[in-house]
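Give me the fold.
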Amino acid sequence: MQSKVCYLAEEGIIAMVESSAVSASDFESAVDAIARIHRETGCSRVFVDARERRSFTNVLDAYDRAVHAASRLRNTGVRVCILVVNALANSYRFFETVSLNRGLMTRVFDDEAVAREWLHGR
């Protein structure tokens, strides 16, 4: 199933909803859509809602996905927050670390209010 990506002008964010199963090609397409929306709107806040996911991809796939996201979005000023269920937060930290090491400001949260505060720089 594909991820859904859209620009929410009233919130000033690019929103992405990850379904329970996102293939590598679907993820790459979603990241490309985020990069396009960023270029078109100048919006630099990305809110990823991954709470529907009930399992984490394997480490190699997570690495490849983080490298792809960073290669498309680093040096753009984009900030990415990823909202996950508590049970998967530690698993997503690997994605976060790989992204950060490649210049993409990324944080993983299991609390939506805290995630939105971070995303908006509060």
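The mean pLDDT is 89.
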